[in-house]
What we know:
Blueprint: H1 24-36, H2 38-43, H3 46-60, E1 66-70, H4 72-89, E2 96-100, H5 118-127, E3 140-144, H6 151-163, E4 166-170, H7 177-181, E5 184-186, H8 202-221, H9 238-252, H10 256-266, H11 269-278, H12 282-291, H13 296-300
Parallel strand pairs: 1-2, 1-3, 3-4, 4-5
Helix pairs in contact: 3-8, 4-8, 5-6, 9-10, 9-11, 10-11, 11-12
Amino acid sequence: MTDLAHLLTESRNPASEHIDELSTLDMLTLINRQDAAVAAAVAEELPQIARAVDAIAARFALGGRLFYIGAGTSGRLGVLDASECPPTFSVPPTLFQGIIAGGDKALRRSSEQSEDSFEEGETDLAVRHFAQPGVFDHDTLIGIAASGRTPYVLGAIAHAKALGALTVGLSCVPASPLAQAAEIAITPATGPEVITGSTRLKAGTATKLVLNMISTGLMIRTGAVYGNLMVNVQTTNQKLVDRGHRIIMQATGCDQTTATRLLTEAGNVKLAIVMGKLHLDRPSAEARLTTTHGNLRHAINPPA
């Protein structure tokens, strides 16, 4: 029997041993009940997730970047989270970067054999110019591996640590090699999968929840959110223009006509809110935001 057989994520789930004999409704009910336990597993890791958010936010303030790296489902989830941040929060695509074993083609077509190479993990990180002088020591790498033992991810973690970057290990197996190698370990123990070893299920759901928390928490901490409004949204299509108008109306209390005018004059939602809230012209509003490094709440209500 291999070491893999002893992993929590590879063990057999007694609740689903006869899932193929159930009616469709009972089958789905069983899956749903198993999924319901995922949020509780993630909740156990909230202190570690908060520690990661605060540490990464401090590095962002110094010009750092955040890299996700993983193989298979883990890699795809990292790339997904990284790709959603620029349009949602108007951050440059270099701030959040997702790397998957096997390259971008592995997003659509399985390349699972790529995960077995420790050296490829090191190389793929280096190719992204992770070691650019003066930057790497402010960067963060989140290594994602449900099993916590993927050689590709462990290689990347070792390379990042050698460069002085912060390392975070996201896995679903307590005390895994990844959890031990990373400076911050986030380990929601989701237990055996409904389909034995299929970590695209509960482990994948837990991973998505954690990554959502990290990226959203970072953007809140760095001023890209005002209240619960995504004030950094890029108004690049009709739906997002409409959302931008509604955000301006909600933040300032103005009507639709005024919100439309403010967005047209300002060119972006955050600036439009400063103009409308403080009754400033565009240059004055821009200067106000510049002094607060883009933090809308501080621009409107300067801290004492």
